Structures are given as structure tokens and as C-alpha cells.
């Protein structure tokens, strides 16, 4: 079930909230928690009930192993067993085909369907096992109900944020967690609606522009300069609005249920350098990679060469986490290279002026989205050729005639076939949409940073457009991060 | 919570006021509206029995009433505009002007049959009705009225501002230079071979979209056509179904054809099917799989007219063309190269 579908907004969510708070009020918090687990499993099973046993089995397996970790003297051995089993499960469903293709390129594929959310619920539980082995706090795994509620909790089950068990499980155990709180309900609903608007009104609009350009590159079309740049800039906006919109919705939903999630995006495109970008983009994944991969690998403690290799390895795995394909590995490798370059620069030179740093960082991030979005090496190269102007620079004839100074280096065409709806006015239309999107991203506060006073204004400007897309738009585009 | 509700209410009010009273798209929707109104105005001036061609843009681009009318000896209005315009809207507007003895020819695009109710409700006609034609909107079902109220998205708002700005800055619409124009009968003229030459690579690469037979059979457009056929039967208006023009190398599937034929046959209407099923080589097209270029448009119109002639309940007066022939370009004077 998608957060931005009518069945979720008008059916599941009100029913879930009503059941949770009614049980909390008249029966008790424990019953409300069980209701929440049941609702979350229903939410997950809506996509494909065949994978419900996998989710339930994973929860039971990890709960059992975590209990052994707490009780046993061989904590490390149980931790290795647990992490191996989790990674084995993830590896089989997500990477078996990819690895098989590397080992035996001619062998027929296994064609294993990737269970929804497996990357997220596997990582959540690896975190729990590692924390259980390191920390003496047993509350997280003392009882199955709060543990099950934490893992299956529908606001973060499908695409994060990747929250720490120690942050969430104690909240489920608080007395009165299932008692309605007007402030939480209102704040949560506002944040949810603003996230819904980011997804439906902005992300899907920019996704349409990006799909046309990247689709043309896939089909072997030589994109012109503006077609290639506009598609890439549109994709950069799409993935930001899509994923941060999803995160806002998740944070809002959890808030309505009296659970606080950490922030997941903090206007990352405004970052002054690439390290800052990774502290502001998908912050919970960044924290997970730092605490559960980079630092255990040795982090910065074992010399510069080891630090560089740890950084590159961490980012390559971050890329691979997004999907079993080389384009994600390339994306991770690019970001690893950016981070190493930035670190070396900082050792010898003073920081760049803020605006220059922001511009360079944004350019580097946008360029890295090309292999991430492209469906293969050839498509990515085709897109980059277009962005370099190697396929020519053209604009609609009416623009060239309006600005004669352009005619020396820009060729006039009737329409640009891979820009927007390829109509006469598509160029100004897509330009205006991109301008609006980048102004929102670069100049306005994000949903989490908005003040109590500014959120109603944001809602007033976008609620009707959100309703238009939710109830009247003829199709629903799934979240990009569902595929990861 | 009160502030939240107030914000939502203010947003809805602002949206309604903006799209119903202020924002407009004079260049894109304005052109469509002007075409519809001009066709209706021409139709309203004709008292004698007439032929009305209703379709998507394959109507005006691939059919020429200036040729068909004289050949069947009755005035002909090319009332097709664009594939996205709802059939319910076009039927509603034209029903007021159709009289006993009139003939309606429907070479509808496949997509027009297959469109879903939700897609029809959000077509460009929704915004046109909301902003300029409340009389028609009031006659639509309640769900269509509600959808019209919520038919505009953020892109529509941005385009409204852009188009209004361009119009006020003296913007010269380049479309006439690029694609030709329309004549008094609603035919698209001037889309010559020379103008279309630039589109050859695009046409060569295009893969036409064909809805499935099931989509056609169960589409909301099909239900609208069926309703119109029943209305026509009770008002002594003859309807002739037909096929849209398209690439010869991308024919309409047999099951889809059967579904299209069936609705006309079931409702007791005629169905016109040329030997080539209105399929032509790609070289005969102008800029899309629905738009023949001008010479091919003229040839196709001759073929359609000759096939329509026995179906039209009116004796042919020869020589054709003296009564309503309107020569709009040199191409009209040319005899058809093939029929």
C-alpha cells in the first residue's frame, strides 16, 4: 500500500488510528501495540501477502538471536550468526542474480522477486543485534510485542528512515503511548500532508520530465544539451522530493501515533561540501553506514591510507545497498571519490567560499545522479555526452528569434522532442517548473525546519494541489526508494 | 487543529478562485476552445442537412471537409479537435446543432474509445468548461463537474502564467508557421510535404500506441459512443463509424477492430471501412501517426467521401463541389493521385 494512495489516506490510516487510540483508551497500551503490529502486517501484505512469512520469520529469528546475545556468554558468536543470517537473506533475494551474472555471465538468471522493504527491515535488525551485543540495555529485546512493533511499524517499514531500536522501542514502552495527543496528531498530520504534497505535486511532475530524457537516452537518442541537462536536473529534484517527501510522511505518521522519528533530510542540496551533503542526505542511512560499517572497518583510526580505503568501500557498499547493479556501484564509487578528494583538499587548503562550495557540491551530486538513474553504462555516457554539448545545443526557434544573440551558438528547432510534452511551449514550461523546484530546494526552509507559523502557509499553498493529485490524477507513481 | 483546517480550507478556496476565475491558458487551451467554437459557429449557420466529422486531431489533419462535402453534396464540418477533448463534451456541444437528416462520421482514434472515465474527466475540456463554458459544465454529471473543478495541477498554473505573460508581450504563435492553419470548415490545411520534411526522422522512429481490445471494449469512451449512437437514433441523426488514419506498418489489431465495429453494428449504425483500413505509408504522414500530410489528406478525403456517398441518405448532385466547395489551397485543386 502506498502512502499517497487513496486507500491508504482515506481507508487504512483513519482505521489504524481509530483502532490504536480506541484500544489504547479502553483496553490498554499492550492491546494497542498488538493492533499496530496487525495493521502494519496488513499494510505490508497489501503488496504481496506471499512475503508476510518472510517478514514475520525475520522478526522472530532476530528476536530469538537478540535474546541469546543478551543471555549467552558468547555474544560475539551469536552476533556473527545473526548478521550472517540477515546478510544471507538479503544477499539471496537482492544480490543472487547480480553475483551469478558476475561469476557466470551466460548462466540463466534466477529471477528472484525482491521482497518489498527487505533492505530496510534487514538493516534495522542488524542494528539491533549489534546494539544488543554492545549495550547492556535489554529493554529493546525484552518482549516480543514492542520489538515486533518496532520492526514492522508501517511508517518506516517500507523505505525508512532507518531508525535505531534504542530510539524507538523505549517510546513504544512509555505509558500512555496509545493515548491521543492533540499536538502530536496536528503536527503529524501537517507534516504528513506537506510530505504528501512534495511527492504528488513536485516529485511526480519532475519525474515525468526526467523519464522522457532518460528514456530517450536508453533508446539510443542523441540528446541535445538542454534536453540532457533538464532531464538530469529534473531527476535530481524528483529523487529529493520523492524521498524526502516519503520521509516527511513517515515522520508525520509516526508523530500521529505518538512516536518521534529522527530527521532524514536537511536541505542537502544546500551543502557547502560533499561531507556535509552526506550529513544532510538520507541522514539515517549515513549514520548507519558510519556507525555500523565505516567505524567497525577501522574508520579514521588506522592511518590515512586505511581511512581512504574504508571510505571508498563504505560508499561502494552504500551504492550496492541501493540495488544490485553496476550503475549504483559507480554512483557509490563517485561519492567515495568525492569524499576522499574533499578530505585531501581540507588537509592542505582553506575551505572554499560558501557559494562556490555549494555550487561545486551541487554540480558533483547532480552529475553522480546520471549513472544512478541511467539503466546502463551506454545510457549514462549518452546522457553525459548531451550534457557536454557534444550532440549540439538547440533551442526552440521562437526563443532564438527572441534573443538574436543566441543564434551564434544555439541552433533553432521547431520543437525539442525530448523535453516535456515536446510542444511549442515545452521549453519555457519545463524551465519555469525547474526554476520553481530549485527555488523551493535552495531558498525555502524544509518541512522539518519550518516554524510553527510557516507550516500553515506552506499547507495553504499546496493542499488543494495535493488533493487534486491524490483524488483526480489518473495514475499513481510509486516511491523511487521502494525499489531499493 | 483549527489552524490546520483553516489552512486546508483557504487552500481549496484559493485554488477554486484561481482556476475558475483568474488563471487561463490562452495559447494552448485557448486555441482548442477557439477551434471548437469556430466549428460550432459554422455548424450553426448551416440550415440544410450536413455532415459532421467528429474525432481527435486525425479528423482535421487527415480529413478535409472542403473535399468530402462537395463529393457527398452536403456541407461538411470537421469538428474533430484533439484526441484529449472529451467525447462527452464534443457530443454535448454538437447535439444542440444536429437535426434529423444530419450525418455524423466518427473516425475516432483508438485511444478515444479506450480512455478511462478519470482520464476523460481531466481532459483539456474540463479546464475550458470551468473557465469559459459553465453552461456545458452544468449539464455534465456531478463527478465530471467535480473533476473539472480539480482538473488543473501545478504545471497548469505555471503554464497559465507563462501563456498569459506571452500573450500580453505580443508573442507571435509559431505554430501556424510550423504546422499550417485551419480553414472555415475546420480542416487543417497547409501541412505540406515541405513543412513536414523536418519531421521525417521523428516519424520514422515513432511507435504508435495501440490500446488492447479489452481496453477499447470496456473504455469509458466506448460507453460515450454507445450513448451518442442511441441518442442519434432517437433524433433521426445518422451516424457512420470509421477508422482513424495510421501507419500501414502498425495496423489496428483484429480484436480491436472487431470491438470498434461491434458498437456501431449493435446500435444499428453504418461502419465505413476502406480497403486499406485508413492505413498509409509513413511517408504520407506529417508529424504524428494520426496526422496525414496535406497531399495524403486530400487523397484520403476523396476515398472517404466516395465510400460515404452511398451511406448518406441524399441523392448526389453532380458535378460535385459546386454548392459548398471551398478551395483553400492549391493542393485542393489537385486531383487525387490515388483513391
In short:
The complex is a heterodimer of chains A (484) and B (339). Chain A has 484 residues and is an all-alpha fold.
Q: How would you describe this protein?
A:
The complex is a heterodimer of chains A (484) and B (339). With 484 residues, chain A is mainly α. Chain A folds into three domains: 6-180, no CATH class; 186-272 and 352-475, no CATH class; 282-350. Chain A is built from 19 helices and two strands. In chain A, α17 links the parallel β1 (394-396) and β2. Chain A starts with 5 loop residues before the first helix and ends in a 12-residue tail after the last helix. The mean pLDDT of chain A is 89. Chain B is α/β, with parallel strands linked by helices and 339 residues long. Chain B has one domain: Rossmann fold (3-Layer(aba) Sandwich). Helix content of chain B is 52%, strand content 9%. Chain B has a five-stranded parallel sheet with strand order 2-1-3-6-8, with helices on both faces. In chain B, strands 4-5 form a two-stranded antiparallel ribbon. In chain B, β10 (285-288) and β11 (291-292) form a beta hairpin. The longest helix of chain B has 21 residues, at 2-22. Chain B starts with a helix and ends in a 6-residue tail after the last helix. Residues 314-339 of chain B have low confidence and may be disordered. Chain A binds chain B through residues 182, 185-186, 189-190, 193, 201-202, 205, 396-398, 414-415, 417, 423-425, 428-429, 432-433, 436, 456-457, 459-465, 467-469, 471-474, and chain B through 1, 3-4, 6-8, 10-12, 14-16, 27-28, 116, 118-119, 121-122, 147, 150-155, 157-159, 161-163, 166, 171-175, 178, 198, 202.
Amino acid at each position: 500500500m502506498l502512502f499517497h494512495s487513496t486507500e491508504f489516506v482515506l481507508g487504512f490510516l483513519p482505521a489504524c488510528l481509530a483502532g490504536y487510540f480506541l484500544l489504547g483508551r479502553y483496553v490498554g497500551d499492550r492491546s494497542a501495540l498488538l493492533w499496530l503490529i496487525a495493521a502494519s502486517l496488513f499494510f505490508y501484505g497489501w503488496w504481496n501477502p506471499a512475503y508476510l512469512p518472510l517478514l514475520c520469520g525475520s522478526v522472530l529469528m532476530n528476536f530469538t538471536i537478540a535474546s541469546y546475545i543478551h543471555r549467552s556468554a558468547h555474544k560475539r558468536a551469536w552476533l556473527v550468526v545473526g548478521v550472517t543470517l540477515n546478510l544471507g537473506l538479503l544477499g539471496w533475494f537482492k544480490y543472487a542474480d547480480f553475483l551469478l551474472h558476475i561469476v557466470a555471465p551466460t548462466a540463466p538468471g534466477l529471477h528472484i522477486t525482491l521482497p518489498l522493504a527487505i533492505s530496510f527491515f534487514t538493516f534495522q535488525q542488524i542494528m539491533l543485534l549489534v546494539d544488543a551485543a554492545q549495550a547492556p540495555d535489554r529493554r529493546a529485546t525484552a518482549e516480543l510485542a514492542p520489538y515486533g512493533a518496532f520492526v514492522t511499524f508501517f511508517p518506516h517499514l517500507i523505505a525508512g528512515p532507518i531508525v535505531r531500536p534504542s530510539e524507538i522501542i523505549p517510546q513504544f514502552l512509555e505509558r500512555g503511548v496509545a493515548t491521543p495527543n492533540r499536538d502530536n496528531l496536528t503536527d503529524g498530520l501537517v507534516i504528513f500532508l506537506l510530505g504528501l504534497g512534495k511527492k504528488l505535486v513536485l516529485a511526480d511532475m519532475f519525474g515525468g520530465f526526467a523519464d522522457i530524457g532518460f528514456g530517450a537516452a536508453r533508446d539510443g537518442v542523441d540528446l541535445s544539451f538542454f534536453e540532457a541537462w533538464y532531464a538530469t536536473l529534473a531527476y535530481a529534484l524528483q529523487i529529493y522530493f520523492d524521498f524526502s517527501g516519503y520521509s516527511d510522511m513517515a515522520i508525520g505518521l509516526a508523530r500521529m501515533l505518538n512516536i518521534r522519528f529522527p530527521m532524514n533530510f536537511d536541505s542537502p542540496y544546500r551543502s557547502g561540501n560533499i561531507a556535509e551533503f552526506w550529513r544532510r542526505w538520507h541522514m539515517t542511512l549515513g549514520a548507519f553506514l558510519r556507525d555500523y560499517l565505516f567505524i567497525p572497518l577501522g574508520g579514521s583510526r588506522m592511518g590515512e591510507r586505511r581511512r581512504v580505503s574504508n571510505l571508498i568501500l563504505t560508499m561502494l557498499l552504500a551504492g550496492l545497498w541501493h540495488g544490485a547493479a553496476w550503475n549504483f556501484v559507480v554512483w557509490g564509487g563517485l561519492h567515495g571519490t568525492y569524499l576522499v578528494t574533499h578530505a585531501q583538499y581540507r588537509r592542505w587548503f582553506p575551505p572554499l567560499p560558501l557559494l562556490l562550495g555549494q555550487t561545486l557540491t551541487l554540480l558533483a551530486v547532480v552529475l553522480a545522479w546520471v549513472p544512478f538513474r541511467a539503466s546502463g553504462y551506454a545510457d549514462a555516457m549518452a546522457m553525459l555526452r548531451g550534457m557536454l554539448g557534444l550532440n549540439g545545443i538547440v533551442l526552440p526557434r521562437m526563443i532564438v528569434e527572441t534573443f538574436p544573440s543566441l543564434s551564434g551558438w544555439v541552433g533553432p528547432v521547431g520543437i525539442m522532442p525530448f523535453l516535456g510534452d515536446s510542444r511549442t511551449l515545452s521549453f519555457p514550461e519545463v524551465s519555469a517548473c525547474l526554476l520553481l523546484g530549485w527555488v523551493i530546494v535552495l531558498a525555502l526552509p524544509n518541512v522539518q525546519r519550518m516554524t510553527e507559523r510557516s507550516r500553515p502557509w506552506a499547507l495553504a499553498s499546496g493542499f488543494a494541489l495535493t488533493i487534486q493529485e491524490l483524488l483526480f490524477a489518473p495514475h499513481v507513481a510509486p516511491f523511487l526508494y521502494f525499489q531499493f | 487543529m483549527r489552524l490546520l483546517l483553516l489552512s486546508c480550507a483557504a487552500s481549496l478556496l484559493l485554488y477554486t478562485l484561481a482556476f475558475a476565475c483568474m488563471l487561463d491558458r490562452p495559447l494552448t487551451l485557448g486555441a482548442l476552445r477557439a477551434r471548437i467554437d469556430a466549428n460550432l459557429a459554422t455548424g450553426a449557420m448551416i440550415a440544410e442537412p450536413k455532415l459532421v466529422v467528429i474525432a481527435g486531431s486525425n479528423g482535421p489533419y487527415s480529413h478535409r471537409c472542403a473535399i468530402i462535402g462537395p463529393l457527398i453534396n452536403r456541407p461538411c464540418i470537421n469538428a474533430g479537435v484533439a484526441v484529449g477533448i472529451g467525447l462527452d463534451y464534443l457530443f454535448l456541444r454538437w447535439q444542440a446543432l444536429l437535426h434529423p437528416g444530419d450525418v455524423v462520421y466518427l473516425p475516432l482514434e483508438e485511444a478515444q474509445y479506450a480512455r478511462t472515465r478519470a482520464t476523460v474527466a481531466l481532459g483539456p475540456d474540463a479546464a475550458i468548461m470551468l473557465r469559459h463554458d459553465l453552461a456545458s459544465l452544468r449539464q455534465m454529471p456531478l463527478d465530471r463537474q467535480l473533476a473539472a473543478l480539480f482538473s488543473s495541477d501545478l504545471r497548469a498554473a505555471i503554464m497559465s502564467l507563462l501563456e498569459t505573460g506571452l500573450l500580453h508581450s505580443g508573442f507571435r504563435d509559431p505554430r501556424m508557421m510550423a504546422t499550417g492553419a485551419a480553414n472555415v470548415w475546420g480542416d487543417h490545411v497547409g501541412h505540406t510535404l515541405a513543412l513536414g520534411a523536418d519531421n521525417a526522422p521523428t516519424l520514422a522512429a515513432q511507435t504508435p500506441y495501440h490500446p488492447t481490445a479489452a481496453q477499447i471494449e470496456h473504455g469509458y469512451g466506448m460507453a460515450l459512443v454507445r450513448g451518442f449512437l442511441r441518442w442519434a437514433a432517437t433524433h433521426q441523426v445518422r451516424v457512420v463509424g470509421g477508422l482513424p488514419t495510421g501507419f500501414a506498418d502498425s495496423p489496428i489489431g483484429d480484436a480491436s477492430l472487431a470491438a470498434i465495429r461491434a458498437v456501431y453494428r449493435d446500435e444499428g449504425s453504418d461502419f465505413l471501412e476502406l480497403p486499406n483500413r485508413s492505413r498509409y505509408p509513413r511517408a504520407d504522414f506529417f508529424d504524428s501517426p494520426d496526422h496525414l500530410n496535406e497531399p495524403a489528406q486530400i487523397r484520403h478525403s476523396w476515398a472517404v467521401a466516395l465510400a460515404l456517398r452511398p451511406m448518406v441518405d441524399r441523392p448526389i448532385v453532380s458535378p460535385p463541389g459546386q454548392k459548398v466547395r471551398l478551395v483553400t489551397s492549391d493542393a485542393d485543386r489537385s486531383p487525387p493521385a490515388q483513391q
